[in-house]
Amino acid sequence: MRFRDRFGIRKNRGTTVAKLDREATDADIEALIAFARSRPGVEFYVEPETFATDTTAVAVANDGEWTRRRVGSPKVIGKVARDLGMPIYDVQIVGYPPRMRAWNERNRNRRIDPGSPGEAVRRP
Q1: What one-character-per-residue DSSP string does 52-117 give?
Q2: I need a labelling partner for 68 at 20 to 30 A (CA). Which of 4, 38, 39, 41 fits?
Q3: Bias category Basic and acidic residues: which stretches (predicted)?
Q4: Are 82 and 44 in contact (CB under 8 A)?
């Protein structure tokens, strides 16, 4: 089976790939798109590639709920944001929105159960 580069991840990633992390996949981008389409007021925040991790993007909804996924390159998430008509920011310049921290505080005693996508459960 041939790999399809639907979102241009391989084309736009540049010459370096993070050494300790897996590469971004179409499933990562599709997860960000699904999150953005299912919640109001989503904004994307691009996080830079490091030695250990690939470039990532955080999608943050109006209420502060968020998700992070590998994107391979800022160009990839830039195109996704344009296609969805949603704003995109460089987290190194603007930082994270306060509503994201507030959501984390409100949900401190909850965690996502890997067996139930999107379903939060109380910690013991």
Answers
A1: SS--EEEEE-TTS-EEEEE-SSHHHHHHHHHHHT--EEEHHHH---HHHHHHHHHTTTEEE-TTST
A2: 4
A3: 103-113
A4: no
* Residue 36: exposure state from Cβ atoms within 10 A (0-12, 13-18, ≥19): buried
Q: Specify the residue for token string 């505080």.
A: 105
Length of the chain: 124
The Cα 124–Cα 121 span in angstroms is 9
pLDDT of the residue at 25: 86
Cα 60 from Cα 94, distance rounded (Å): 14
What does the pLDDT look like over 90-120, one tens digit per residue?
Answer: 999 999 999 999 999 988 877 655 444 444 4
User: 3-class SS at 28?
Assistant: helix
pLDDT at 48 (0 to 100)? 92
Residue 32's φ and ψ, nearest 5 degrees, are -65, -40
Bridge partners, 46 (sequence order): 57, 90
